[in-house]
Amino acid sequence: MISYILRRLVTAVFILLGASFIVYMMTAASGDPLWDLYGHPNAAQLIPARTEALNLDQPPILRYFTWLGGALGCLAPFTDTCTLGLSREGMEVTQMLAFAMGQTIMLVTAGTILAIVIGITLGIVSALRQYSGLDYGITFFTFLCFSLPSFWLAVLLKEIVAISFNDFLQDPVMSLASILAIGVVAGLIWYLVSFGKLKTRILMGVLGFLVTSGIVYFVLATNWLTAPFLGIPLIGLTGVLVAVITTILISGLRNKRALYAGLATVLVGLALYFPVQSFFRGAGLLTVIILCLVMIAIGAAIGFFAGGYDRGQGMRVAGITGFFVALLIILDRFMQSWPNYLDSGHIRGRPIATASAATPGLTGDFWIMGIDRFTHLLLPTIALTLLALASYSRYSRASMLEIMGQDYIRTARAKGLSERTVVMRHAFRNALIPLATLVAYDIGALIGGAIITESVFAFTGMGQLFVQSVRNVDPNPVMGVFLVTGIVAMVFNLIADLVYSVLDPRVRVKA
Amino acid sequence: MSQPQQIEVQEAENLGPMGEPRNDVQGKSQGQLVRQRFFGNTGAVVSLIVLLFIVLLAITSIGIGPVPGWWKWDPDATGTVVNGGRPTLSLLPPGLGDHPFGQDNLGRDLFAMTMQGTQYSLIVMVVVGVIAGILGTVVGGLSGYFRGWTEAILMRLTDVIIIIPLVILAALLGRMAISFVRSTGLPTVATVIALGLLIGAASWPPLARLVRGEFLSLREREFVDAARLAGASSGRIIFKHILPNTVGVITVNITLLMSSAILLETALSYLGLGIQAPDWSLGRLISENQTAFATRPWLFWWPGVFIVTIALTINFIGDGLRDAFDPRQRKFNPKKARERGEHRNERGDVDAGTNANMRGAVNRATR
């Protein structure tokens, strides 16, 4: 195993060297690094200055080795020799990279996680209901996601969703007819994607119509969009829902102890609602994390003492419920700050932002700044989720279908296990194994940034840094971005292979 | 695709189109079977028709190269802005009008511009498919068949290219290509073809890995051993015995690669790194017109609709091809599939996974 890892790492170093040489040469050959200075009034001083700073009088090969020498300095620990060169404007590439990486990670993380979760869920569901309306619907949807040009989607979100939502928020009134129309459309979608007998499908459609129009009516009638709230009743309702769903997924409703443990956790969460509010006043990220951990611990403890033949199940159900209840309480606190955010002078009632990572000049406590970040990340995250979701969904559908056709699934069914156990314990876990590779690749590629999304939403992340430097014929930042993405990609490819061999004992790495 | 065709073909022949055993067994070639299965797939056929329509429209309307088309406006011809440049296309009564897709603020006809963009995007797509297909098949096939040093060198080369982010490669190469073509004074179509060549040269590695895998498994099969014992040369084994068995995988993946290629080209042009002014690409049209969204939204809608339609139809065609090439795939019929039991014949869907993975690199690059 260790010799395998070492061999892979040595190969990786050589591949990186070769690739970095190619990239440097290509960047240097792609244009004239002085193009923007010709015709500049101060050209006589600026051209020699830049030539001096970037060693432009030397041939690119020599410059590459200078760069490589500086980059190798980064390997020596505790010395101050690390340099990835200067950009055209004379900035240290290492600093530019650090800033860009922060922006990129902030931008892509939520989108990637959502894409993984939603994509896998859609894939599994469509595999379990193969050839149903739901399956066709999801398949068409994923193909559409495959075919969406990212820049088009991003501009659409920006120009239509953000602007019309902000406009709507100025005067959030809707006629009864349009509420009913929304309900009808939703009911139709529910009807089309539901499966089973005609009667069930019609029932689902009607249910979809009622639920959707009810929610829309509730939101409008209570002015929820300008002053959202959850309060005890909604937290309780959602918490109970979460507890029931987690129980169905993890242990089945027949395990009454697990269900009661989950419900008890919801009660504890509700009891904590008021005491916690005073802690939230001067809160920061730490308070929020502590609350989540405490609720998970409380849930696990309740599950443990509820006991039963399988303590682990109860603990898991109640722990997960506790986590979600904590999230709901935190969400409620954010919602309490929403009206203040909306009325602040920088926002002026148009909350959904279309550019950059934060509202310039806005100050406030943790909650206000949190909302600000949310409104800025909302649209790019939607765009990234839609774009990344398709491959997860297709992949997990394929993998789940393959697993469901295996002999051990038939055996599990034949020995009388419930369908839930078969799907969740025998199939689902194994279906996730090949996805581990995909997830590792994707996380590896994540740091490279989302070039188009960054450009449309004016984030100054890795993608923007890279594109700007390519446009400017500025090799050092290009090399910096390449080095980071290359190393991360190689490391994660190795991790993907190792994880695969750990998860699937049939795959052994060649030692 | 890892089974030799001969065995599977017989199995498929014994079942008629409705799945019932058939008494009169007639011989059918592999090509006939594939064609039959492909044309039985409604989604794929509809997509094919739509795509052909778009191709014909793009070629005939404004003409290609020196050949003039039937459309009256030129992509670059400015004119008077009629009625604020609103689209004149109407369904009731059906009619094109003077400017069916509208005009921009200089009075240029959006239909002509979109057609030129579509034409160029399609050219890039086809060139990428051809180049990436040839390179990927040759590199993957050679390294999979000969193994040893050939494989080591070719696969390390693949590793080097795969690790360079596709956008870096395409952007830099595309830039070099355009400055080269400009400096030598070739016609504008040459820049488009050059862009396609270079995107193709950058996007073959995933295909090469896939083909290598196929060759690795096929070269160990009995029928290859038999051919070798019969004294067949390497060339004959590769072209007569192994390659025909990988045609399905290669075709399907080239198709899917092409659908990613069109997104990559439009994305590069959007960023200003692909097709440059004065030529129009669908991506460039969107990037030029996105600021006018509030006043002239049609300038933004039409090019986008064309990109989505082209990519979507190609995806569906690729999906249909995959089903058609897979010998284990029966003619698709949901009702019958349900009667037979839900969990047969999942092999085609498993390939969907590898495809998703293969397209991952390109898709990630265009996010």
TrEMBL record, chain B:
Q: Name one Pfam family in it.
A: BPD_transp_1
Q: Transmembrane residues, as ranges?
A: 38-64, 120-145, 157-178, 190-211, 242-264, 299-321
Which PROSITE patterns is this protein grouped with? ABC_TM1
Q: Where in the cell is it found?
A: Cell membrane
Question: Where does the ABC transmembrane type-1 domain lie?
Answer: 118-318
According to Swiss-Prot or TrEMBL, what is its membrane topology? Answer: Multi-pass membrane protein
What's in the keyword line of the UniProt record? Cell membrane, Membrane, Transmembrane, Transmembrane helix, Transport
Name the domain of life: Bacteria
Residue ranges, compositional bias (Basic and acidic residues): 339-350
CDD domains assigned to the protein according to its UniProt record, in alphabetical order: TM_PBP2
User: PANTHER family, alphabetically?
Assistant: D,D-DIPEPTIDE TRANSPORT SYSTEM PERMEASE PROTEIN DDPC-RELATED, OLIGOPEPTIDE TRANSPORT SYSTEM PERMEASE PROTEIN APPC
| UniProt similarity note | Belongs to the binding-protein-dependent transport system permease family.
Question: What name appears for this protein in its UniProt entry?
Answer: ABC transporter permease
